[in-house]
Amino acid sequence: MYAAVDLGSNSFRFSIGKHDGEQIRVQKSVREPIRLAAGLDNDGNLTPEAMQRALNCLKSFRATLATWDLEAVRVVATSTMRQARNIATFLPQAEQAIGYPIEIISGEEEGRLIYMGVANALAQPAERRLVVDIGGGSTELILGRGLDIERVESFSVGSVRQSLSFFIGGRVDAPSFEAAILSARSIFEDGAPPYHPQFWKRAYGSSGTIRAIADIIDKNGLDRTCPERGVTPASLDLLKERFIACGHVSRMDLPGLRPDRASTIIGGLAILIGVMRELGIEQIEPIEAGLRMGVMWDLYQRSMRHDRREESVAAFQRKFAVDVARATRVADDAAALLDQLKPASDATPRLLYWSALLHELGMAVSQTGHHKHTAYIIENADLPGFTTREQRTMSRLALAQKGNLRKVGEFLSDPDFARAVVALRLAIVFMHARIDVALAAPKLRMKNRIELELRREWVTDHPTLSYWIEKEQEHWDEVGVDLGLRYA
């Protein structure tokens, strides 16, 4: 049993699903229209009112989740939390309210999870398909075949902002609609060619927005050109005309349209019309699968020891021609050293290991200052499976691998991060000094100071070791931490 919580720009949702041997069957779903994107002020900060609405919802979710026997829970946040300038203030409060870590995922990672949910629901291994997901703050286009993703891109246009920007005060008229459609088309214009129909056989709409639009079209008899309930440009134009005839959001009383969706469905409709026109899509089929289903499949695969993050690290090693044997040696040694320091978080050893595997990828840019290049690439690259927070932690570890520690001094107050830095730096020292950690059996402790114990013969046999340790003592002393060396 798994739970996926989606903190979207329009709504907060969660789904609980059970894997039955073939599929994940949804046992319960909850949706709350929080309108987080509408709670961003002119400076890009979440307003106190928006944050309080969100916190109240998260506390309610926590109470409901606590009544289920769950193997794993994953909470992901999307576009608005990516954009909010005061997210550092809000995030700890939100995590306390929900009772789980919140992963702010990139648009590309959001797209991959959406596709994973759709592909597993369809179970058609040879089908070439396009998946379109229109969220409250962003729109994802994903091209793939079967379970394999070939291309994914996130566009910064969503139903909430489009509604607020073009349908001022809830007024709905033809000029506003055309302006909203043209705006959407301009955003998709440059990225459209790889998603044109010659590259796929069928197009699917995975978002609640597209499913809601399809339901309204069906219940109002607007699908005469496509009675099997697919959405076509003609049916979208008919729906647009119905909305224009209403004149205002408050008067949009159509069968199939929930009142809480009226204020954002117009922006979503403009985006869908824009993307279908720009890409030349003749029909798009709504599907009851998407981000939350993809999150649950990802949790299931992790439980089966199939972690996409491992694949991402291996792919980056190949891409940047990393010396895998050398990187693996550092990673193994760092893991062994960290184990002696007993980190509190289960996530720390994994993040340290992946950081070590990638610690020299900046060599592809320049050997001088390679740790800085490595840190920049890790933080800003598209690494499938990793959250923004994980990439930021790995980036800081990469930056801290050599040189002065003042550049990461503010993060060393986190005990687990400090332990990981000690383990990584010493693993690199031992690698440079040609010392096999498994044979040297160093003893490492860290409380108020770092205590390292080595056999004296290793210092004699490896003359550069004393130099490296002396440099380490200097660097740790600069940040007020004593590194003491003892000989067994």
TrEMBL record:
Quote any Pfam family the record assigns: Ppx-GppA
Keywords on record: Hydrolase
Q: Check the record and name the PANTHER family matching this protein.
A: EXOPOLYPHOSPHATASE, RETROGRADE REGULATION PROTEIN 2
Q: Which InterPro entries match?
A: ATPase_NBD, GppA/Ppx_hydrolase, Ppx_GppA_C, Ppx_GppA_N, PyroPPase_GppA_Ppx
Ppx/GppA phosphatase N-terminal domain sequence ranges: 24-300
SUPFAM superfamilies xref list = Actin-like ATPase domain, HD-domain/PDEase-like
> What's the protein called, per UniProt?
Ppx/GppA phosphatase family protein
**Where in this chain does the record put each Ppx/GppA phosphatase C-terminal domain?**
309-472
